[in-house]
Amino acid sequence: MTARRTRLDRYERGIVTHLSKRYGYTLSDARELVIAYLPVIEKLGRYDNSGDHADRLHQARRNGLTPELWLHRINMIDAGASRDASLRKAQLN
After folding, report:
1. SS3 content of the chain, % helix, strand, coil (to 5)
2. For position 3, what pLDDT does the model report?
3. Which of 29, 30, 72, 91 is deepest in the core (most CB within 10 A)?
4. What digits encode the pLDDT tens for the residues 43-65?
């Protein structure tokens, strides 16, 4: 079993703050939610502001979308995009 990182960086703490202020999570519950979804946050990248990520995490929890399922869906989309790119490249040759 791999150890989870528990110290949040500034961006991740921003997500915690938004979850608490926008959706009424306790700081402890918001922090646990962010820690659970860290692999998703890392996979999606940090292009959007922390408030946008807070909105997504809240929706995911509300809709029962686990981090594992979300990552699986992202990976399926990535695989499809790679396959499409390979097909386009093959057509050009």
Report:
1. 75, 0, 25
2. 47
3. 30
4. 999 999 999 999 999 999 999 99
**Residue 30: closest CA among 7, 11, 12:** 12
Sequence spans of domains, the chain: 10-92
- R_g (Cα) of the chain, nearest Å: 16
pTM for the model stands at: 0.80
CA dihedral sign, ordered 33, 35, 36, 42: positive
* Assigned token pair, 58: 């809240």
Do 20 and 30 form a contact (C-beta atoms < 8 A)? yes
- Whether residue 82 is predicted with pLDDT greater than 80 in this model: the reply is no
Which tokens in the block code for residue 5?
Answer: 């990182």
Q: How far apart are CA 4 and CA 7, in angstroms?
A: 9
